[in-house]
From TrEMBL:
It comes from Gottfriedia luciferensis. Residues 25-388 form the Glutamine amidotransferase type-2 domain. Keywords: 3Fe-4S, Amino-acid biosynthesis, Flavoprotein, FMN, Glutamate biosynthesis, Glutamine amidotransferase, Iron, Iron-sulfur, Metal-binding, Oxidoreductase. The lineage of its organism: Bacteria, Bacillati, Bacillota, Bacilli, Bacillales. This is Glutamate synthase. CDD domains: GltS_FMN (cd02808), GXGXG (cd00504). Its cofactor is FMN; [3Fe-4S] cluster.
Amino acid sequence: MKFQTKTEWSPGLFRDYYNNEHDACGIVAFINRSITQTRDTIDIAAESLRKMNHRAGFTNGEGDGVGIQTDIPTLLWQEKLTSVGISPEVVSHPSFTVGHFFLDEKSEIQTLLQIFEENGYETLYHSCNQTFTSALGPIAQAVEPEFLQVALLPITNHQSTTLFDLTNIISKKTNVTVVSLSQSTCVYKVMGTIDTLLSYYSDLQHPNFQSSVVVGHNRYSTNTSSSFSRVQPFSMLAHNGEINTIEQLRIEAKQIGANIKHGNSDSQDVNITLETLIHKYNYSLKEAMELLFPPVPAEYESDPEVNTIYNTIRSTFGPYCQGPAGVLTREGNEFVASVDALGLRPVWLLETNDYYVFSSEQGILSPELFIAEPHALSPGEKVGINLLKDRAQLLTHRELTHFVTTKLNEKLTMNLANKEANSADYVEHSPPSIHPFEYGAFGWQKEQIQLVEQMAEKGAEPIRSLGHDAPLACLDETRKNLSDFMKETVAVVTNPAIDRDRETEHFSISVILGKRPSISKNDSGIVFQLPSPILGDGFVGNTLKANRQQLTYEEILNLYQLENKLYTIQSTFSNLPLEETLSQYKYEAVEAVKNGAECIVITDDEAHKNNQYWIDPALITAIIHNGLVNAKLRRNCSIVLKTAAVRNLHDLMVMKGLGADAINPHFLFGTISELEAPEKIVKLYDVLNKGIEKVISTIGMHELRGYAKMFSSIGLQEDIASSLGIINFFGDQTVSGFKLLEADSKKRFEDYNANNAAMPKSFHVFPRIWKAIGETAQTGSYETYRQKLNQIEEERPTTVRHALSLVESRKPVDSSQVSLEIGTHSLPFIISSMSFGSQNEVAFRAYAEGANRLNMISLNGEGGEIQDMIGKYPNTRGQQIASGRFGVNANLLHSSNLIEIKIGQGAKPGEGGHLPASKVTQKIAETRNATLGSDLISPSNNHDIYSIEDLAQMISEIKAVNPKAKVAVKVPVVPNIGTIAVGIAKAGANFINISGFDGGTGAARVHAIQNVGLPVEIGVRAAHNALLESGLRNSVEIWADGGMKSVNDVVKMMILGANRIGFGTLSMIAIGCTTCRGCHLDTCHVGIATQIESEIEAMRHGLRKFTPRQLETAVTNLVQFFTAFKDELQVIVGSLGVKNAQELVGKTEFLKQTRFLDTLSLTNLLSTNKIEDKEYVLSNGESAKVLQSNDVGVYAKVDNEYRHAGSLLIHDLVVKKQTQGVASPVEISFEDQSIPGNGLGTYTVEDYSIFVQGGAQDGVAKTAFGGTIFISKAVGANGQFFGGSVGKCFAYGAQKGQFFIQGNADSRAGIRLSGADVVIGGRNHSSQSISQKTRLGAKANINGFAFEYMTGGRAVVLGDPGPWMCAGMTGGVIYVRNSSELGLTKEAYQNRIAKGASVSIVPVDETGKNDLNELLEKYISLLTQHNQHDEAEFVQSLLDDIEQNFLQIKPKKEQADPSVSTE
């Protein structure tokens, strides 16, 4: 069987990674304005897909896949039917149907034909001779399915099954993939490129193959082996992005009868859900899209016209399609284009005389064809097109919204009961005190109580430094709850984390309780909308109601009880065994809901009493939730959990993810409840809610209702993990987890009733070893440190590798004969990335110098390089590019041939950093190209990496500006890290840096340190095996860091698959760190994690003791420390019988499990299963068209295939300046209707100028360090000027230079602007209401999120700057129009300022007048030079009265508390 079938799979297998892949792509749609079928529509769409080959993946020269959805081609089918003796007029029959199918075997054809007949369809035509295998490459040929094409017509006087039901019947009865089965459209797709597609299908070569609409998709897969069936478009959808909430969407879709199958991609399941809503429930495509992609609450709550209906829409279905999503979808005579709520993927609307065009890139067309301004869809925007008989009717976002809300208002209803909830008379009494034995019986530790008290006192989550050094739950003998075995996951590369702190208005943690509004009839149960899933009872509940408008636990239960719709389950067992009891509870819950219950309450109030043994709330919640899901009753009720075992934010997220809709954590609030201090309750509630938002932001979600099981477990018994329905690593299948839990519950019962349930203290390694590390650094001897570590690891193992031992050889090699070399370096060690800012200058310099003396790698963190260090260590010093782009520019990239892109780090995956203003000294400000004394914020994600093809673009940009550079990508460990590693390799990376959860020199929230990410062992082995399976292992190195403490760790990680090992914390300890874990406070008494440089400064900071570092001593200690590690490594490698350490990489036969044999199974981790030997070459088929070194001058009609155009010239300019001290200025002009591709002017420098007539794509002037860019409009098809617009992230991180665009900018323009000047000249000629607060993006000139994190520079915006601007802005100034005629006034701007902003809108001062004169005079000059005289005159008129025509926006300069530092 050729067809590669997806099977039940788990990452815990460490193999068969083809079962898990992620997609990115380019998408396009051409809609003929006259709805005329033409060949030109096919050809122009095909050419557009060809122009976006750079958005596709390539392996061995083969594309990952491409497809098109078209009309059923009338002329072609008339010809086909005539050839088999059927009247061509049948094609015009309204029920004429065309079907395309992928089959495993030809023998399935007869089965299909029989199914058609049984369901009332006559097969008029069928053929499996429509393709040419020779058009495929070897990879595609290996998995090529049979292709069957049919034409069907309902049998006269027979009851025919609907095509939707027929599709489901085929799906359930066979292994056949229904590519398309429709009376209006058909889909053709293939593994390959657009040229492969056109050559593969005979239909597409026929001149009569014509269509009025074409929707196309060019695929980038994270695997090198895939299948035809996963290529898009699907039956009605082409999707660019990733649905982060896919787990919850699948649950919800199954509840409404969608045929969701295992192994589908996220896009497939969105497509199936759309089909279900449209064909089972009779929604239009526009209505179905609004149900699946509803607006965020902030976009409608202040609009009384639509507030009620959107609450109903979101309660009926919900925000289950969160994540990056550019969507083009067509069904019948409807078409909808959509962008996700945060605008993370690009979709452009282009208009020509003949077509409406939607595309990932505007540069697929020449501007000379435009008849309207190119429009990048704004965050959350949808545009519809009605395909009428003789024309295409465009519906704007506002028109579509009005249409949909009107229609859905007629179909849906909700019985919202919030106002009916009234608490019974409440008598205030002191909250009950909780005794230590009660805490102990519910699994609390002393440290957890302390953390709760800190949060309630300070109103913030505690921050700590130096990572996690406590044992994994599965290795710890102290009492553990199930949630302790679980680690939360985050978004990595294929989708982004998002920024809760700066984009806060998009976040919602509201939940729905009760029976949800019916999707099929005008009906609803009792529904509550809560602002948070956290409930309180008694004094806590009433405090939260009074201060935060949260309903109380009692109010909710009372109303359901009054309506006889409440069912309560005690979370205990007694006479029956635990597993049997849980089965009984599941049955009871299902029966209760069938009989009308709308609220299931699970409570452990009776636990540990009256022979009632406690059941872990995670287990009982999951089993009842899963039972209701399987019974398809989950929409009919909610689950409310009351438990004493929720101890922290992590426990809350686990309970929510496993199925609890609302949680009453009564011990958590009871810990701090005092009648005299209700503010503590409110503070704790607020901190937890903010924490929930932070958690969902790291997985790329902005609404809690999409959250489901975004965690995996380590070392749970497989029967328990299976009952929970979660991914599990190293689970033992031979031991009954239920029996172990039973025994544990009975012991808790005994301890509780004997009043002696002790709370254990947390165990930490570093306090026990830091002195020994220091001794090794000072003496160069490993002996004492080895003995100390061996003792600790024997007594209190903390990591998975402590359960493994080395298998020594009977033929050892003398250590003097052992080579540790790798590449050009002598040692396989890395000093992990640490920034200047988090580290003192002496420490920062010592890492670089020490590594250089040893000829090993040291990595700079995100903070730029001290000026005299730039270029000093070209072969051993790596430079980092991270989300803040501090100090990143062309000079930095040329200082080293090793560049690391940080996607995330182990200590705080999915989160950014914050260097408070108090730490930003003059030298740090210079190094980071920032302003002295300003807060410096690193976003939680790189705003130019929202997908795998974005990462490929960024790597391509780096290598274009420094052709010698090798690129590393640093990522945290998540369950699907193997698949991600393959995607990173395909994107062109040379090194993959796997960062385990327990590492981290940086400061982070305690929650992130303890509960987020997975151990490095999992990441390294998964990446190694996945790369082997994909044939890409030899194209990349794997690096590992995260909690490395010994040479034994080094050897074990190499055996699991790592080529090099990173050390961060140990490097700090080697130069004197005492691990006091207060690195973020700027009070480091040994002068490492502080900017204090002298004892006098230390005294001013209140430090009683301060011992500054000495550079040479620090360097010597590092050299001695790593030399000791080198000597020990040679001895151990020799003992294994190996002469070269790299020979150990991936060879798990050198490891064996010797501990925890009865509780952990490391078989899969150590498996040496034979993996098919194959070696793939990553093709340059997706590379950019480039301008060579001598290509200075003028170019005409440059299109989007010229990505990062001219970057090689920047390279030449920088090199000449570095070597010769001077270079001639470079000037490039792209004229005559040009739209060059992504990355134009990235890393520009002084004496470099680009002029464009037409437009540009994403990333213009990104990380610029000088130069000038001007982008003007071009003459369109009707003689008017259009365009001059740019894509996302214009001037992201730009530090110097001047950049002018005459048109509009897509979202996140000016993000992290830190010194450069920008003018955005796009403007509207019609106004929006001054008081309007919602849906502003679709008509704005910047689509949203402009000038986030801005730390310096000047910006002028001549039009509407769009919503959610200036979040996190701490420096610089923005000048905006003041025009009541255009609806741009101070009030209007206040409606556009983000909640996460702290800025003032004030009249223009004298400095402002000078700025505006300078910048706009330059802009006028450029406009005039490029024949934009009318616009130049208009801008000149604005300068006549600057005070009247402009306002300025400045940050308020509020400095943050240093304790919030996460650097």
